[in-house]
Amino acid sequence: GARLPRRLVYVVDRRAVVDQATDVAGSLREVVRCSPELKAALGLEQELTISTLRGQFLDNREWLTDPSVPAIVIGTVDMVGSRLLFEGYGVSRRMRPYHAGMLGADTLVVLDEAHLVPPFEHLLRTIARAADNGLGPRDGIGADLVPGLQLLSLSATGRSDPNALSLQPADWQHPVVARRLDAIKSLFIRDDVEPARLAEQLADEAWAFSESSKRCIVFCDRREDARKVAEGLTKRAGKATPIDVELFVGGRRVWERSEAAEWLRARGFLAGTQIIPDKPTFVIATSAGEVGVDLDADHMVCDLVSWERMVQRLGRVNRRGDGAARVIVVPAIAEDEALAGRLASTKELLQALPRGDEGYDASPAALVSLRRDDSRRELVARATTPEPLHPALTRPLLEAWSMTSLDEHTGRPEVAPWLRGWIADDAPQTTLLWREIMPIGDGTLLGPSELEAYCDVAGPQLAEQLETESWRALSWLVSRAEALSENNTDDPDCWPRRNDEILAVIIAGTKAARTITQRDLIDKQRRSDLENQLGGATVIVDARVGGLNRGLLSDEHASATDVTTIGEGSGRALPLRLRRTRESDGTEVGWRQEARIATKHSDAGDEIEWLVIDTLVSVPAESEEGRAVGREQKLDEHQEWVERAARRIASRLGLPPRYADVLALASRLHDEGKRAKRWQQAFHAKSDGVYGKTHGRPNLQILAGYRHELGSLPRAEADRRVQGLDDDLRDLCLHLIAAHHGHARPVIRVDGAEEPPSKLEMRAREIALRFTRLEKQWGPWGLAWWETLLRSADQQASRENDANSPRSELDG
Q: To 5 degrees, how large is the angle CA 190–CA 195–CA 201?
């Protein structure tokens, strides 16, 4: 019979809000913890897993540890959508199929505020119906065996689905529901003002609440207006009147968003906190505060925006129905003809609300009645922002994205239009992050292979990213470069001392990484060339550049604590750290060395300094080279442990015996290629046996590019158990072995292999053809899901080995 998916994926389209959904998930985990019956019904041996792909909780990667156990995953449209399409933002190519398999199969996606992202809702509906539209498995067993994706859309405006479930008459009688639906929200519409006077008028209206109200929220469509309103309120208060003002806008790093959330909670702006501030308190918000955060103010002042956004804003005042809110709307004259028409329709809708002595009734009940009025349907449509056009998801496109082991593919476009549609006036975006340890060695950018290793395991972390318009990022970079140019002296305490020192590095969004120097930013021709490369790019900024003020871009220098990021003693909760060392090896207990990149060499060419990237042992490794303090382990034991973990996973999933046996067999043989003399020597294995886990870094010259997965294939093909499988099961078994480190989709490098070139060419061709056959049989997400089963079992066995390390026991 039908069963619930194992993973609940909650998506909300705002990156500038606190993760209140994670708090709710935490309370659900507490319910499960206190109920042995519920825990048993969910098949949980430990606590319910919760992972957040955004916000203060960061991605702990726990959701990736086991595809057979329940988990709650919380993320944004971009984080979840890009992963679903095998193009995960900030995810290495080798890990992308893993993420796609975990999200595209056995999941229930709950899309909150679905009306904000119609293209993404259409995409999810297409994926949910994969079996009916040619995107899923091509045969019955694939459709029956691999659990698919299911979708539940939530919307406050009703734009997404006319057949959506809604409150029934009996629900309206519930006292709590009735109080919230009838919450008093008296709305007043002021005369239109010129755009240049809008901020001043909003500040005046908000200041009028300073005597009668403790909490007022001001919504502005433009960030510049929000900044002016905040400055205007501070100026009006002067020194005589103590007030609190918080600017709640986008364009901040997650760390500062978390701090802003604490500010909101401490002053009672988060619904249910029941805190009354001791002085007039104002939140000045852009669209960042309209959705995804349970804001609740006593009164509201705002400019006029499209209908669906006005509905969202009205939901941020007197949210629980415990007071009597006043809402002041100040329309600004719109220069754009289409926007002016939409705003005029919005005003007409507001004026159609019931009117009393205290303004228009903007209660939720009144809004629902207005929406249900058939005579207003066309007016609502004219007042609502049109859905952006979006491309269709086709099988060839999906298969092109799924070929993750190809760095370049002419049929693999950017996924953004499938997530958000084509937005004509959408300004190009640039992601900025600050680091003390840059991807630089000996004063120059790391080479291509070293930079790839850096980005694979130390790519931009969600918490440290600040996304803003590309023009704003360039303007800010120029202003900081001009300010820093005063330091171009021989003084050793000043930085930078020359105008050709590297201030930042572009690592994504362009065909080739490049550095940014003061000269690039100050010289007009160089700056023009740079401007064309910032759109869609990710830029790592040297922390010494500064330029942050409470998480917002600032022309002024910021203190080190404002920009310090990963692993430099900042106290930030991240499972990653970077360090430079002259020691040949060594990692602290509790940390796993993911990458070791040589950054300096002696005159003789020997490596003398390294950039080391460590991750916490407690989270899954980001790369196959990740090496913890765990004990050395012989190959037979490791493969036995992986098989045991695979059978546990298969049992929990209820796989039919023949498929459980194939998974177990692939697990038993997946590392056979490590028996090669080349691998044993390169990884410094002892002479008393064949090892699968060793200490220390490999000798890459001896390894010569050898992929042990490739070396495992001929050994597996010669195994009688594999030879006895049906063709389709043999294909699956061999592919799982070849792909268990994220390669073979559809290619894997053949350097250093033991077979002759002609044989290797045939093997590489068969690997690619096998991938194609299996993807057609199981569907792109189905095949990726199969890969997660073996990869998860492999990681579980490795963590078990780390836990058995004598040093781990001492640390515990």
A: 45
Classified as helix, coil or strand, 211 is: coil
Looking at every residue in the chain, the average pLDDT score rounds to 86
Helices then strands (H, E): number in the chain?
32, 27
Categorize the per-residue pLDDT at 157 as very low, low, confident or very high, splitting at 50, 70 and 90. low
Q: How far is residue 151's CA from residue 419's CA, in Å, rounded to a whole number? A: 15
Q: How much of the chain exceeds pLDDT 90, in percent?
A: 46
**pTM, entire model:** 0.84
Q: For residue 604, give the 3-state DSSP assignment.
A: coil
1: Cα separation from own chain's centroid: 34
Helix, strand, coil shares of the chain, percent, nearest 5, are 45, 15, 40
How many other C-beta atoms lie within 10 A of the C-beta of residue 517? 18
Which among 549, 443, 564 has a CA at the least distance from the CA of 496?
Answer: 443
Sequence-separated (6 or more) residues with CB below 8 Å from residue 91:
82, 83, 99, 459
> DSSP letter at 287?
G
Residues facing 149 on adjacent strands: 107
> What pLDDT band is residue 574 in, cutting at 50, 70 and 90?
low
CA 750/CA 738 separation, integer angstroms: 12
**pLDDT computed for residue 568 by the predictor:** 38
Contacts of 145 (CB under 8 A, 6+ apart): 655, 656, 659
Torsion on CA atoms 513, 518, 519, 524, rounded to nearest 10: 90
Residue 553 to residue 570: CA distance in whole angstroms = 20
Annotate 108-128 with DSSP letters as a single string.
EEEETTGGG-HHHHHHHHHHH
Please give the backbone phi and psi of residue 430, each rounded to the nearest 5 degrees, phi first: -130, 140
- List Cβ neighbours of 525 (8 Å cut-off, separation of 6 or more): none
Contacts of 231 (CB under 8 A, 6+ apart): none
Q: Strand ranges (DSSP E) for 518-603?
A: 538-542, 548-549, 552-553, 576-581, 591-601
278 Cβ contact list (under 8 Å, min separation 6): none
Please say whether the beta carbons of 391 and 417 come within 8 A. Answer: yes
Taking the CA of residue 237 as centre, how many other CA atoms within 13 Å lie in the half-sphere pointing to its CB? 22
Q: At what angle do helices 635-653 and 657-669 cross, to 10 degrees?
A: 160
Percent of the chain with pLDDT over 70: 89
- Supply the DSSP symbol for 185: E
Cβ-based neighbours of 129, under 8 Å, separated by 6 or more: none
- pLDDT value at 213 more than 60: yes
